[in-house]
Write a structure and sequence with these properties.
alpha+beta; Transferase(Phosphotransferase), domain 1; 4 domains; six-stranded antiparallel sheet; 44% helix; disordered N terminus; protein serine/threonine kinase activity; ATP binding; serine/threonine-protein kinase
């Protein structure tokens, strides 16, 4: 028996029927069986005594399913998710259950079940697959409006050789559906200590070195079990981050988190090992400091700081960020693109180091496509907000003809599903329709993509001063560190984005403003800090036009960051004390702090 794995599609709506017709014509002795594999992939087993027929079958499949490995993975995951979704509906989907059960060594095309009897509508199993496979089209076009039409950014990841490692026996840590186990990389065995965080990228675990227990590292794993994200997108992001880590570590050591290594696990997930930062990130540290700050006219209690003392510590965190950014720009020529307090980690000495290089970019060419990965408006430069607004309007206008076609296709799809499964409950049919509702006119989309990307709203989006986007991120971070509130936190994201866009279009506006009543005026983005020196410093950075923003080096030269106690040993001990919840350590360092 020979087999060919049905792992993707070219023109999904017609392929399976073409395969069915072709196979029936190849040989009278030809039998085809369907089976789900251990990884939920769907395989068609083709059995025939005629080797020439088998050759034709294989060639036919190769021609139709000649696609990249990454797209096969997307397709496999999509069909697996569809099967899982339908299987959870229980007895209501008895026809679908019959169909899925018959994947197990049953004759699909001849219409017989496992017992050799005529199965109830099993002859439509291939038609069910045809409808299900339509969902694949959904995976090839991004759901985000901009990604539907804009050409995908060129993959700039260079060839990387990543060693594959096996999970080893030993004590493991279970978090949700993922188990972190020991593994060995470059002759060193690493054992899990605890789970640290979870996000769109996957999980982060703390590991220790077996040969040196005091050597602690963080393992970031690009998986999707915990979050519904695109696996290939996560892996590409991991590869990009690895390459950027290598570039950064080769040029700067003291301003960025140390890169230890990377590996690929048996399931295809990618692991990135970095220096472990025991004192967390700057965002959380700043919040702790605000919680323990009292007015200058009040005596601080155990583990507390006066407002003036806290200001020195907070400015130290800002200076750490400016130093890291200056090193990144000056020594590597890279733009971070996601510069914020949460991406600055505090090492064992309480010094902030730059991390998370997944969106970083080298050079100053057009990087518009990279910016779509940055979520939220708190750190987004205003010039991007006005472009987002213009792009959205252009896409909405161009989408109108397509929306009409989508409605026609939806009506046709409902009719098709009703014919395929007449006895199925209406509610269940609607679920299949929703899953299989795809954008049918791929050729039209390709043409439309080119038309929209040539519009002025897109063609002018070439940023030659990309460093200045990071500078805005630094200014927005400084405001958050000093006040405990992010820019735009006082309103919904859409309104905040609109406010940013308006801010970028008018000269002479101040980002940080306020009046006696505490209300915004002059079109400002955030209220005053109630400290003239701080407001002046923030407005020095947060200018509407990117060309007017200072460099990171110029920010470091600002008198506000020249105070002798900023970055002192006492400040570092206060930071470590807050991390450890050690009031005695905080109080001792506070007593030695010079203002």
């Amino acid at each position: 028996m020979n087999s060919v794995t049905l792992s993707n599609q070219a023109t999904a709506r017609d392929n399976l029927q073409k395969i069915s017709d072709m196979l029936k014509q190849q040989s009278d002795g030809l039998k085809v069986y369907g089976k789900k594999g251990p990884n939920q992939e769907i395989t068609l087993y083709v059995k025939t005594a005629d080797t020439s027929s088998m050759g034709k079958v294989k060639k036919f499949f190769e021609n139709i399913f000649q696609v990249s490995a990454s797209r096969r993975q997307v397709a496999n995951e999509t069909i697996r998710n569809l099967i899982s979704e339908l299987a959870t509906q229980g007895s209501k989907n008895h026809h679908l259950e019959d169909a899925l059960n018959n994947f197990s060594e049953s004759s699909i095309l001849s219409g017989h079940d496992q017992n050799g009897k005529k199965a109830h509508r099993v002859e439509n199993l291939n038609l069910f697959l045809k409808a299900a496979l339509n969902v694949y089209d959904k995976t090839f076009m991004q759901s985000q409006i901009r990604d539907e039409f804009k050409p995908q950014a060129e993959n700039k990841v260079k060839e990387l050789k990543i060693k594959t490692v096996e999970w080893e026996k030993g004590e493991s840590i279970q978090f949700r559906d993922f188990k972190a186990s020991p593994f060995k990389l470059n002759g060193v065995k690493y054992e899990p200590v605890k789970h640290l965080a979870t996000g769109g990228y996957g999980h982060v675990f703390q590991y220790k070195s077996d040969d040196n227990p005091s050597k602690i590292v963080a393992l970031k794993i690009s998986i999707t079990e915990a979050v519904e994200r695109n696996t290939d997108q996560n892996r590409l992001g991991a590869l990009t981050e690895i390459q950027n880590h290598i570039n950064v570590s080769a040029k700067i050591q003291k301003s960025a988190i140390d890169y230890v290594g990377s590996c690929c696990f048996p399931d295809g997930s990618i692991g990135i090992l970095t220096e472990f930062a025991p004192h967390g990130d700057i965002e959380k540290m700043a919040l702790k400091i605000h919680e323990k700050t009292v007015p200058d006219n009040q005596k601080p209690g155990p583990g507390q700081l006066t407002k003036s003392q806290a200001k020195v510590v907070l400015l130290t965190l800002i200076k750490d960020m400016a130093k890291s950014l200056n090193s990144l720009h000056e020594e590597t020529g890279m733009t971070h693109l996601d510069f914020k307090p949460a991406n600055m980690l505090l090492n064992e000495n309480g010094i902030g180091l730059l991390s998370d290089f997944g969106t970083s970019f080298e050079g100053t060419e057009n990087i518009r496509d990279q910016m779509v990965n940055i979520e939220g408006t708190a750190y987004k430069a205003p010039e991007l907000s006005i472009i987002d607004k213009k792009e959205s309007e252009a896409i909405t206008n161009a989408k109108s003809p397509l929306n009409k076609r989508k409605m026609i296709h939806l009506a046709q799809l409902k009719e098709d599903i009703a014919i395929l499964f007449p006895e199925m409950d209406r509610e269940d049919r609607e679920k299949i329709v929703n899953l299989a509702h795809i954008k049918k006119h791929e050729a039209h989309l390709t043409q439309l993509s080119g038309e929209i990307s040539s519009l002025p709203e897109f063609s002018k989006n070439k940023f030659q001063n990309t460093f200045k986007m990071d500078i805005w991120g630094l200014g927005a971070s400084a405001y958050q560190i000093l006040t405990g509130n992010a820019i735009g936190q006082d309103t919904v994201p859409k309104t905040a984005n609109h406010r940013l866009g308006n801010f970028s279009e008018t000269d002479g506006k101040l980002a940080i403003v306020g009046d006696s009543k505490g209300f915004l005026n002059q079109g400002g983005l955030a209220p005053s800090t109630n400290d003239i020196a701080l407001d002046t410093f923030l407005n020095f950075i947060l200018t509407a036009k990117p060309e007017d923003r200072p460099t990171a080096k110029e920010i470091l030269e600002n008198p506000l960051l020249k105070h002798s106690s900023i970055g002192s040993e006492e400040v570092r001990n206060i930071i470590k004390g807050f991390s450890k919840n050690d009031n005695e350590m905080i109080d001792l360092a506070r007593g030695k702090l010079r203002l």
